[in-house]
């Protein structure tokens, strides 16, 4: 029976080439994109009184994990092309084929390396990216000012109380110890028209309701503003509702997202979008495994035929087409067009079959 991998020496050689190029491309992409991102965000950071170089560096530490997670699959794709292109051009692939290796055997070390990269990406997303995303979103929501105290700052809270709406810029704490910052209470009639708006810098749970401190109320019909040192509103909104309303899959680990989906389902709320993102927490990192297969079209074929560059472009096009289809599938799933499982995994399966078909038809 033919071994799946080539010799140990050749396996290590290909894996080492592949890993060095993955990290090289990733570092290049992240540094360039981080600089471009700082050019657009540094003004907003420094506009906040008291912010300086320390806050700029803090922003970089929060933003960089997001860039690494997002562009790691792209790096694997480009590293595949940068590995296979010179191997083909220098006739090393021809030498491997002449030694009796199949295209799948040549590709096997890179697929194994990509699988390890996928595992590292999954762990990195769970342990680093989710926490950094939660902190960065909360910080951006207060215009890079001081964050409220709390173990896990959350932002853009929005809860309906019958016709009325309670909104807050940030939420900190849990249960009855929840503290809302930048609170707005909208009173609406049966037709959804706003009849009054109350703003307050802070709100706490009043059991029942939420006590707005230093509240300022504007009556739309009378066009009058009144102030109150304390005002209790939203008596039907409980701390449990606020605990589950901030259902942002990007800032949640797999376990937190699972608990949120269960809580929302028990309350009769739609969870298709969150379920699709739950599955995508697996299929997203695993997309790195597809990149060597889609980019392998650049590895084979005679360099002197003049089609090597075209093969590299085709491999790059297949890789980028996967990301486009993946995002489109998630968007359609969010609107209920696909079941969550299909929305997250259909692009992966489709492009795995496409990559395998191209490889078999051209080389095997």
Automatic annotation (TrEMBL):
- Extract the InterPro entries matched here: LptG (IPR030923), LptG/LptF_permease (IPR005495)
Q: What keywords is this UniProt entry annotated with?
A: Cell membrane, Membrane, Transmembrane, Transmembrane helix
Domain of life the protein comes from: Bacteria
Report TM segments. Answer: 12-36, 67-85, 308-325, 337-360
Primary location group: membrane
Q: Among its keywords, does the record have Cell division?
A: no
Among the GO biological process terms of this entry, one is: transmembrane transport
Q: Which GO terms describe its cellular component?
A: ATP-binding cassette (ABC) transporter complex
Q: Where in the cell is it found?
A: Cell membrane
Membrane topology category: Multi-pass membrane protein
PANTHER family tied to this protein? LIPOPOLYSACCHARIDE EXPORT SYSTEM PERMEASE PROTEIN LPTG, SLR0882 PROTEIN-RELATED
Its protein name is LPS export ABC transporter permease LptG
Q: Which organism is it from?
A: Novosphingobium umbonatum
């Amino acid at each position: 029976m033919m071994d799946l991998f080539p010799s140990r020496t050749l396996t290590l050689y290909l894996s080492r080439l592949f890993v060095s190029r993955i990290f090289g491309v990733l570092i290049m992409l992240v540094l360039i994109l981080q600089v471009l991102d700082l050019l657009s965000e540094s003004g907003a950071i420094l506009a906040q009184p008291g912010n300086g170089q320390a806050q700029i560096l803090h922003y970089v530490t929060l933003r960089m994990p997001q860039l690494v997670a997002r562009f790691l699959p792209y790096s694997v794709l480009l590293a595949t092309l940068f590995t296979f292109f010179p191997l083909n051009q220098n006739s090393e692939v021809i030498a491997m084929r002449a030694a009796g290796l199949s295209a799948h055997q040549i590709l096997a070390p890179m697929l194994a390396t990509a699988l390890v990269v996928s595992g590292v990406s999954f762990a990195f997303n769970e342990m680093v990216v989710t926490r950094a995303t939660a902190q960065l979103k909360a910080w951006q929501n207060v215009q890079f000012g001081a964050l409220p105290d709390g173990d896990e700052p959350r932002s853009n809270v929005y809860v309906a109380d019958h016709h009325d709406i309670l909104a807050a810029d940030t939420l900190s704490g849990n249960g009855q110890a929840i503290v809302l910052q930048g609170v707005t209470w909208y009173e609406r009639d049966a037709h959804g028209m706003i009849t009054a708006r109350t703003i307050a810098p802070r709100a706490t749970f009043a059991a029942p309701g939420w006590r707005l401190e230093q509240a300022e109320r504007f009556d739309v019909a009378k066009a009058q503003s009144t102030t109150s040192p304390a005002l209790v509103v939203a008596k039907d909104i409980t701390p449990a509702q606020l605990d589950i309303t901030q259902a942002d899959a990007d800032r949640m680990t797999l376990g937190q997202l699972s608990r949120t989906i269960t809580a929302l389902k028990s309350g009769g709320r739609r969870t298709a979008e969150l379920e699709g993102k739950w599955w995508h927490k697996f299929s997203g990192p695993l997309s790195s495994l597809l990149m060597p297969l889609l980019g392998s079209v650049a590895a084979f074929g005679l360099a002197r035929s003049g089609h090597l560059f075209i093969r590299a472009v085709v491999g790059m096009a297949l890789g980028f087409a996967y990301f486009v289809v993946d995002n489109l599938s998630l968007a359609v799933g969010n609107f209920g067009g696909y079941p969550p499982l299909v929305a997250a995994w259909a692009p992966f399966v489709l492009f795995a079959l496409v990559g395998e078909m191209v490889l078999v038809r051209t080389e095997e």
